[in-house]
């Protein structure tokens, strides 16, 4: 049930778990634990619907490579960014959790097998379509992969009744985290403020910070500053290893044998390199998306290719006369970004209306990031040549060396990851494999900010799996 | 087949040829010895028959093994030569990744 902000301080010691943030991760934790009978308080900083006063806190500055305005990449009201996401989901590959040969920093302290038990529950929560198993492409180091492409779930609407009626789940809107008070390695209480500047204090046995892939780091940086470093004494990596999924249109292809890639039946085909290719080409993971062209565009592509390569053009004409159906395809890609200490969230100079410093994102793509997308395209192109299955054209900025990434177009997937990295030790990250702050016994972080590496797949399914795993952990501690 | 692999294959062919030569010499000398025996002693004993059999089968085996290897090595070498001839160099033209023969 909804709770007025003014009554927050009256809850006393009755709260088992205080969840800070009401997006995909926060709602997953809150609804699950409340459903198991625990007393949960969910504090959402925004309103029930979009509001400028809340969204304004998401403004920030960007340094380094071109990136999108920070306030345009996420939403700050109940339901968080699930209010505008596309619903595209796929689990990370098993090798996304390992130390990849090109960048050992990609290793997580947990493996995919620790998230697999939560796949079904996460898929049900997000109402995913079935995701078929990946299949190798014969004669190549590529595999055909699949995503759930169904309608996106809006958690605010899906759990509207629960939020309204549940006796175990209390939900407070416009409750913005201002500070965490720590004593002897435990956070005793959290302070919240509304937009009128009124403050309330909440005590709870456990706190879960779930404010998104930028604000988890921002708020911990702020709270740590407020406590003179007592919250996170070893804070060298706080805000660091921030990652995105660079996105771009990377070229086009003429496919002579569409059935070899499944493009004869599907309009959109997704490919990714297999684990061996990542090792042999010293690159990171990448998702290539082939979007089938219509007949007119395909004919145009044939003519373009025939004028550049007359011998091949004659062959294409002969195939057409035999009745062979060929398809043109637009090529788009989303690729893994190297986890780098230098890419980070910082506290900026300017403050928001609540008095908290705004985010500053310092973000650059590395040589390995550029190498990854070029090698992925060459892998596809060489396979098409080897098997005489088609030909690809790399877009201008990929064909020329050095690769200079575009500064317009998609840029990135609005997938914010890292900043409160999961690791084995406090020297290497902020949370342990249970998603708990190393220095605090009762504070956890939920969301993609704990990702140690990014793979190429959209992060929502993985972050919900992690949130449900966190629920099991908390339930053991609450028992 | 890269440069390293082609050097390895030519070395293998050289050693196979040497093996064949040694085998033929051995086979020839054992045949000569047996015919000499048969000329002087008309009825071969059990031990001599066994020696004759052993020498014959060993000689055949030694001759056949490298011959078979030679045939397969020669086949592989001719196949790789054929493959090399088929694989056209790759070129990038206006961003298109092509075989040189496409043009």
From TrEMBL, chain A:
Glucose-methanol-choline oxidoreductase C-terminal domain residues: 339-467
A GO MF term: oxidoreductase activity, acting on CH-OH group of donors
Keyword set includes Translocase: no
Cofactors demanded by this protein: FAD
Signal peptide (UniProt feature, chain positions): none
Domain FAD dependent oxidoreductase: 16-319
Keywords tagged on the record: FAD, Flavoprotein, Oxidoreductase
Family matches, as InterPro entries: FAD-dep_OxRdtase, FAD/NAD-bd_sf, GMC_OxRtase_C, P2Ox-like
Family listed: Belongs to the GMC oxidoreductase family.
Protein name, per record: Choline dehydrogenase-like flavoprotein
From TrEMBL, chain B:
Keyword entries, A-Z: Membrane, Transmembrane, Transmembrane helix
TM ranges: 12-34, 54-74
UniProt superkingdom: Bacteria
Annotated protein name in UniProt: Uncharacterized protein
């Amino acid at each position: 049930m909804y709770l007025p902000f003014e009554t927050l301080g009256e809850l006393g010691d009755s709260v088992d778990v205080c969840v800070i943030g009401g997006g995909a991760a926060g709602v997953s934790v809150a609804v699950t634990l409340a459903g198991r009978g625990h007393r949960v308080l969910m504090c959402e900083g925004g309103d029930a619907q979009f509001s400028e006063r809340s969204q304004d806190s998401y403004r920030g500055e960007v340094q380094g490579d071109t990136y999108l305005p920070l306030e345009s990449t996420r939403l700050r009201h109940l339901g968080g960014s699930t209010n505008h996401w596309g619903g595209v989901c796929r689990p990370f590959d098993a090798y996304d959790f390992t130390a990849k040969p090109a960048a050992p920093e990609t290793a997580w302290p947990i493996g995919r097998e620790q998230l697999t038990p939560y796949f079904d529950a996460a898929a049900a929560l997000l109402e995913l379509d079935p995701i078929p198993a990946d299949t190798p492409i014969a004669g190549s180091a590529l595999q055909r992969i699949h995503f759930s492409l169904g309608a996106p779930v809006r958690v605010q609407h899906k759990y509207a009744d629960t939020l309204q009626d549940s006796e175990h789940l209390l939900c407070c809107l416009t409750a913005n985290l201002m500070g965490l008070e720590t004593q002897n390695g435990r956070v005793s209480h959290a302070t919240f403020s509304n937009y009128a500047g009124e403050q309330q204090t909440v005590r709870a046995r456990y706190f879960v910070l779930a404010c998104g892939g930028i604000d988890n780091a921002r708020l911990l940086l702020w709270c740590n500053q407020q406590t003179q470093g007592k919250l996170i004494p070893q804070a060298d990596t706080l805000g660091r290893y921030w990652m995105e999924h660079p996105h771009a249109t990377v070229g086009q292809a003429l496919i002579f044998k569409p059935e070899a890639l499944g493009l004869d039946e599907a309009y959109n085909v997704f490919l990714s390199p297999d684990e061996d290719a990542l090792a042999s080409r010293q690159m990171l993971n990448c998702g290539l998306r082939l979007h089938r062209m219509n007949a007119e565009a395909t004919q145009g592509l044939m003519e373009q290719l025939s004028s550049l390569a007359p011998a091949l053009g004659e062959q294409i004409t002969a195939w057409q006369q035999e009745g062979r159906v060929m398809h043109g395809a637009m090529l788009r890609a989303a690729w893994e970004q190297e986890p780098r200490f230098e890419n980070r969230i910082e506290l900026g100079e300017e403050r928001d209306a609540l008095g908290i410093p705004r985010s500053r994102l310092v973000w650059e793509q590395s040589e390995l990031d550029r190498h990854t997308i070029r090698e992925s395209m060459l892998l596809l192109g060489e396979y098409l040549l080897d098997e005489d299955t088609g030909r690809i054209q790399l877009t201008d900025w990929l064909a020329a060396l050095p690769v200079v990434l575009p500064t317009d177009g998609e840029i990135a997937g609005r997938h914010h990851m890292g900043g409160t990295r999961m690791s084995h030790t406090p020297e290497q990250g902020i949370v342990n494999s249970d998603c708990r702050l190393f220095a605090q016994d009762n504070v956890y972080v939920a969301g993609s900010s704990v990702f140690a590496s990014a793979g190429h797949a959209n992060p929502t399914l993985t972050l919900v799996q992690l949130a449900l795993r966190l629920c099991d952990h908390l339930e053991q501690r609450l028992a | 087949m890269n440069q390293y692999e082609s050097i390895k294959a030519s070395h293998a062919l050289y050693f196979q040829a040497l093996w064949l030569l040694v085998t033929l010499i051995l086979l020839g000398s054992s045949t000569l010895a047996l015919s000499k025996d048969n000329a002087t002693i008309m009825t071969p004993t059990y031990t001599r028959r066994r020696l004759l059999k052993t020498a014959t089968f060993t000689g055949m085996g030694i001759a056949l093994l490298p011959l078979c290897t030679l045939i397969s090595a020669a086949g592989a070498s001719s196949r790789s030569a054929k493959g090399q001839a088929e694989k056209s160099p790759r070129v990038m033209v206006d961003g298109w990744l092509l075989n040189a023969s496409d043009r």
